[in-house]
């Protein structure tokens, strides 16, 4: 038993947590990537999203807003079949919408 636990009770969970790495966007693509990561992590394990993120960068053209804003319905269909990413059509469409 730790001294803190003997004298003050158990250490709260939040005190044991490490802060997440800080992201400092420098260009529009960085902002879109950060926003898209939050969208895809919603309702999912962040570890799953993080493990696939390199595939996301490739599939979404480096998150270049101009490129993604020009994605056609065929591009969205292609992404829904791309095994490198999480193939949630609504989240893919949200990423294209956010780029516009």
Q: What is this structure's SSE topology?
A:
Layout (H helix, E strand, L loop, with lengths): L2 H6 L4 H4 L11 H14 L4 H14 L5 H5 L3 H8 L8 H11 L1
Helix pairs in contact: 3-4, 3-7
How would you portray this structure in words?
- By secondary structure, the chain is mostly helical.
- The protein is built from 7 helices and no strands.
- The protein has helices at residues 3-8, 13-16, 28-41, 46-59, 65-69, 73-80, 89-99.
- It starts with a helix and ends with a helix.
Describe what is shown at a glance.
The chain is mainly α. 62% of the residues lie in helices and 0% in strands.
Unreliable segments of 5+ consecutive residues: none
Give the helix level as a range of percent.
Answer: 55-70%
Number of strands: 0
Q: Number of helical runs?
A: 7
Question: Please, how many domains?
Answer: 1
* Beta-strand percentage range: under 5%
Which structural category do the helix and sheet elements fall into? mainly alpha
Order of helices and strands: HHHHHHH
What labels would you give this structure?
mainly alpha; Endonuclease III, domain 1; 100 residues; single chain; 62% helix
């Amino acid at each position: 038993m730790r001294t803190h636990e003997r004298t003050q009770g158990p250490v709260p969970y939040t005190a044991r947590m490490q802060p997440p790495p800080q992201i400092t966007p420098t260009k529009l693509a960085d902002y879109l990537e950060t926003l898209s990561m939050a969208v895809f992590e919603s309702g999912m394990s962040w570890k799953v999203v993080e493990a696939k993120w390199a595939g996301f960068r490739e599939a979404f053209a480096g998150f270049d807003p101009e490129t993604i804003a020009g994605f056609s319905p065929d591009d969205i269909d292609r992404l829904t079949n791309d095994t490198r990413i999480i193939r949630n059509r609504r989240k893919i469409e949200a990423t294209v919408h956010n780029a516009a």
